Amino acid sequence: MKSEIISVGTELLLGQIINTNAQIISQELQKIGVDIYYHTVVGDNKKRLMEVFHTAWNRSEVIILTGGLGPTQDDLTKETIAEYLNIPLVLDEESLNRIREYFQKRHREMPINNMKQAMLPKGSKAIPNQKGTAPGVILEKDGKTIIMLPGPPFEMEPMLKDYVVPLLSKKTSAVILSRVLKFYGIGESTLEEKIKDLMENQTNPTIAPLAKMGEVTLRITAKAGSAKEAMSLIAPIESQIRQRVGEYLYAFDEEKIEDVVARLLLEQNKTLAIAESCTGGLMSHKLTEVPGISKSLDRAIVSYSNRAKQEILFVRSETLEKYGAVSEQTAIEMAEGVKRISKTDIGLSITGIAGPSGGSTEKPVGLVYIAYADSSGCSVEKHFFSGNRSEIKERVANAALHLLRKNLLKYHEEDEVWKP
Questions:
Q1: Exposed end of the chain (fewer CB within 10 Å): N or C?
Q2: Which fold does the domain 2-169 belong to in CATH?
Q3: Regions of the chain short of the pLDDT cut 50
């Protein structure tokens, strides 16, 4: 069953908003075995939308459109599709009543142009909108299924999950399932080289690499009659990959490095204190996104200035004068200092140059030191990161989390890659 998504809205083309609808729809349809072959974005223009829909009509069995269902004149999706299919628009009384109730509950009078939203293609079915005024539309014609959904994601997503997914799941007997493996400390080309034979011989499941900010992911995707059968296809491929590059594997699917670190801290009942300089609290922010981390994370200090490093963390003035704030020696004293004042099991520090200015030949932008201190002593990692200021901060925070993970794994009872 070939399917495609048409996202309607000039604001998407202008980059004013991100097209999250296409991502959400693709993810949901993948789960029920519906293949998405094309994504198209078109502005609020009748002629161009007609052209795009004409192409979709000739190549796909399922066409999902989002956007263009509002009450204004530039909301043209229903009108354009109805005209293309030579179907008149008729008033749907139930939808009109829902729109009226929407305004009544808010003690507002319904504008007359909102009646336009209750005009649906004859023979179609309305999808109730619990979050807004625009009903969705399901239209079956000539063996094809056309679905029109509103643009705002918070309106679209419940309609997709409650109505569209159940409808389309009845039309397919397949399941598409993916398993995502996340790696750190190995480049995309090196990883690909180590599993080259697996990728060259792939059929079902397939293996797709993707390089992101400082990490590489592998998506293993299988299509089968059931989720259990799909997983049985994925499992042997995953096992081979883990045998070859398992030392770099740190997480699966939606799990992030902060989730893994938080889990290890909580499992081992370890307490942590952090001292950050160039990242400005970004690592701490990532960790505090994980519920329950307060049981392990005692405090986080942004010691941005030399004065803060001295007064709060007791970094010696001689260290700063001789080696500078961005140095192995300062990173060690920061980590040991934050551990000492907080009385935690672990102290971790970050100091570096995020740029775009402030670097030198000896200490260029992107130079970073990350120190880890516990009862057995202190170790330091030196890194050189590229990118703009935000990118460098992101890479540094992730590197610090990975250093923390690496050290926590030393205490893990199996001393191996963490398994969910």
A1: C
A2: Molybdenum Cofactor Biosythetic Enzyme; Chain A (3.40.980)
A3: 412-420
